[in-house]
Write a structure and sequence with these properties.
By secondary structure, the chain is of the alpha+beta class. Among the domains are: about 90 residues, Zinc/RING finger domain, C3HC4 (zinc finger) (Herpes Virus-1); about 150 residues, Cysteine proteinases (Cathepsin B, Chain A). The strands form seven sheets. Strands 13, 17, 21, 22, 23, 24, 25 and 26 form an eight-stranded mixed β-sheet that branches. Strands 1-6-5-4-2-3 form a six-stranded mixed β-sheet, with helices on one face. It is elongated.
Length: about 500
C-alpha cells in the first residue's frame, strides 16, 4: 500500500513545485490578466501586492490627461490591456516586464499608470496596485456616472464647474473639438444633447447595457460612444472645458461605411437622419412608435395625398378622361417622420429701386402651411409630375424642422439666403392641424431648444448651433470650441437650417 502511494505523492510534490517555479519565473514576463481583467479568476501571484500608499502620487499631472481619444497603445496601436501613464498622459500596453508600459516607466521614470478598462491604478516597475481616494477624480473623468437624482437636477441647476486650469464652464455647455471638418457632426451632437429624454436615457449606461445584439455586431458601438459623449458633455468634474468627439466620430465613420468623414465637410441633415435611424436600429427599435427612445422623442406621423398630373400637351377632354382612370386618381398614404422639410420661397432675382440687394424674409408659419392639407406642391420626376398635399396627424414630443436652403442643379449648388422669422417661445403648431387632428392633441405649443445655422458659401461654409440651457434660462452659441452667450433676439436673425422644438407640456416647469 505504502509503496504504491509514495511515487504519486512525489509526483504531486514535483508538479506543485514546478508550477510554483513557473509562476515565479513568468510573473513579470507577461501582463497578468487574472487579477485585474475580466478573465476567469485564477491564483493571484504572491509578489503582486496591494499598497494603499504610493510615494509617486505627487508626480501625476492632471493637466495632460485626456481620455477623449481612442484607447490605443501609442507604440503597438493595440486596444488590448491599455494603460494610461498619469505623468505624461500617453497610452501603453500591458504592465509586465516585456511590455511597453513597463519599458516606458523604467526609461522615463514615470511610475503611476491607470488601466483604462478596469479603472485600477498601478505603480510600475514595482507592479503593485494603488488604492487611494485622491485618485477618484481621475477615475470619474474617464468614466463619469450619474444618479437618477443628479439627472433630475440637471435642468434646474445653474451651478458653474471649474476645470483644472481654472476655466469656469456650465455642464452641457462645453465646446466640441473640430478635428478637421466635422463641425456638421458637432452641431447635431450638441443639439441632441439638449433633448431631455434622449440625454437622460444615455446618461445612465444601465438603460442600454442590457440591449442584446447579434455576435460581432458593431452598430452597438455607436450607442456606447454616444452615451460616453453625453456623459462627458454633462460631466460637472471635467479637467478641461471642452470635449473631443474623436471616439464618437470613429464609430460614425466605421458604421456609416465612410459615408460621413471628419476630414470632409458634410450636411448636418443627412447626418441627423442617418444617425437617428442608426441609433434606433442599434437599440433594437422596430416600426412601433415606442420601440426606442429615438421614436419616443421624435417620431410623428403624416398623411400624404398625391395625384399624377396629366401631360400638358393634352387637350381638356383627354385630360379629363385621364383623371378618371385609376392611375391618375388620388392616392393617400400614411408616413411616419423624424423631421419635417420646410421649403423656402425662391429669393428675388433683381435688386430693388435703390440698387441694393434686399435680404428676403419669410415667416415660419408661412413655411408650415405646407402641412395644413390644403396647400399643394408640385414634385417633378424624370418622366412624371405629381401634386402632393401633406397633413400632420400626430405631433411628436420633439419636433425637428429642416429648412431647405440648398438646391442642386446641373452645374453647382445654390444657397437660398432667406431669413426665417420665428418666435423662440410659444410656437403653436396647432394652427396647421385639421380640427379633427387638433382635438386629439392636448397641447400644440412648442418652445425652441436648439437652432443650427449655416454661414458662408454652400461648399465652403461652416455650422454653428444655438442651444437653450434650461438651468440658467440663457441661450448659448457654440461653434466647435467657441462658446458664447447670445440674446434670443439675435438667434432669429441667423440663417436657420435645422431647428428642434420641445412640446410645452413635455417640460416639468413651463418656461
Amino acid at each position: 500500500m505504502t509503496e504504491t502511494k509514495l511515487p504519486i505523492d512525489l509526483l504531486k510534490q514535483k508538479f506543485a513545485a514546478a508550477k510554483k517555479r513557473k509562476v515565479e519565473e513568468n510573473i513579470y514576463d507577461i501582463d497578468p490578466i487574472s487579477d485585474d481583467e475580466d478573465g476567469p479568476a485564477t491564483v493571484v501571484p504572491e509578489k503582486i501586492k496591494t499598497h494603499r500608499l504610493c510615494p509617486y502620487l505627487d508626480t501625476i499631472n492632471r493637466q495632460v490627461l485626456d481620455f477623449d481619444f481612442e484607447k490605443l497603445c501609442s507604440v503597438s496601436l493595440s486596444r488590448i490591456n491599455v494603460y494610461a501613464c498619469l505623468v505624461c498622459g500617453k497610452y501603453f500596453q500591458g504592465r509586465g516586464t516585456n511590455t511597453h508600459a513597463y519599458t516606458h516607466s523604467v526609461a522615463e521614470s514615470h511610475h503611476v499608470f491607470l488601466n483604462l478598462l478596469t479603472l485600477k491604478f498601478y505603480c510600475l516597475p514595482d507592479n503593485y496596485e494603488i488604492v487611494d481616494s485622491s485618485l477618484d477624480d481621475i477615475k470619474y473623468v474617464l468614466n463619469p456616472t450619474f444618479t437618477s437624482e443628479h439627472i433630475r437636477q440637471l435642468d434646474n441647476s445653474d451651478k458653474l464647474s471649474r476645470a483644472i486650469d481654472g476655466t469656469l464652464y456650465l455642464p452641457g455647455i462645453v465646446g466640441l473639438n473640430n478635428i478637421k471638418a466635422n463641425d456638421y457632426c458637432n452641431v447635431i451632437l450638441q443639439a441632441l444633447s439638449h433633448v431631455t429624454p434622449l440625454r437622460d436615457y444615455f446618461l445612465r449606461e444601465i438603460n442600454y447595457a442590457r440591449v442584446k445584439r447579434p455576435p460581432g455586431d458593431s452598430s452597438f458601438l455607436l450607442v456606447q460612444r454616444f452615451g460616453e459623449l453625453m456623459r462627458k458633455l454633462w460631466n460637472p468634474r471635467n479637467f478641461k472645458a471642452h470635449v473631443s468627439p474623436h471616439e464618437m466620430l470613429q464609430a460614425v465613420v466605421l458604421w456609416s461605411r465612410k459615408k460621413f468623414q471628419f476630414t470632409e465637410q458634410g450636411d448636418p441633415v443627412d447626418f441627423l437622419s442617418w444617425f437617428l435611424n442608426a441609433l434606433h436600429l442599434a437599440l433594437n427599435g422596430t416600426k412601433k412608435p415606442d420601440s426606442s427612445i429615438i421614436y419616443k422623442s421624435f417620431l410623428g406621423c403624416m398623411r400624404i395625398t398625391s395625384r399624377k398630373i396629366p401631360p400638358v400637351e393634352l387637350d381638356d377632354v383627354q385630360r379629363a378622361a385621364l383623371q378618371r382612370t385609376d392611375e391618375y386618381a388620388e392616392q393617400v398614404t400614411t408616413s411616419p417622420f423624424l423631421y419635417l422639410t420646410c421649403d423656402l420661397p425662391p429669393p428675388p432675382l433683381f435688386k430693388d429701386e435703390i440698387m441694393e440687394n434686399i435680404i428676403p424674409q419669410v415667416n415660419l408659419y408661412q413655411l408650415l402651411t405646407k402641412f395644413n392639407n390644403e396647400s399643394e406642391k408640385e414634385y417633378k420626376t424624370y418622366k412624371e409630375n405629381f401634386l402632393k398635399r401633406f397633413e400632420i396627424t400626430q405631433l411628436p414630443p420633439y419636433l425637428i424642422l429642416y429648412i431647405k436652403r440648398f438646391t442642386k442643379n446641373t452645374f453647382f449648388v445654390e444657397k437660398n439666403p432667406t431669413i426665417v422669422n420665428f418666435p423662440v417661445k410659444n410656437v403653436d403648431f396647432g394652427d396647421i392641424l385639421t380640427p379633427e387632428v387638433k382635438k386629439r392633441h392636448k397641447n400644440t405649443i412648442y418652445d425652441l431648444v436648439a437652432n443650427i445655422v449655416h454661414d458662408g458659401e454652400p461648399s465652403k461654409g461652416t455650422y454653428r448651433v444655438h442651444v437653450l440651457h434650461k438651468g440658467t434660462g440663457k441661450w448659448y452659441e457654440m461653434q466647435d470650441l467657441h462658446v458664447t452667450d447670445i440674446l434670443p433676439q439675435m438667434i432669429t436673425l441667423t440663417e436657420a437650417y435645422v431647428q428642434i422644438y420641445e412640446l410645452r407640456n413635455n417640460t416639468e416647469n413651463n418656461r
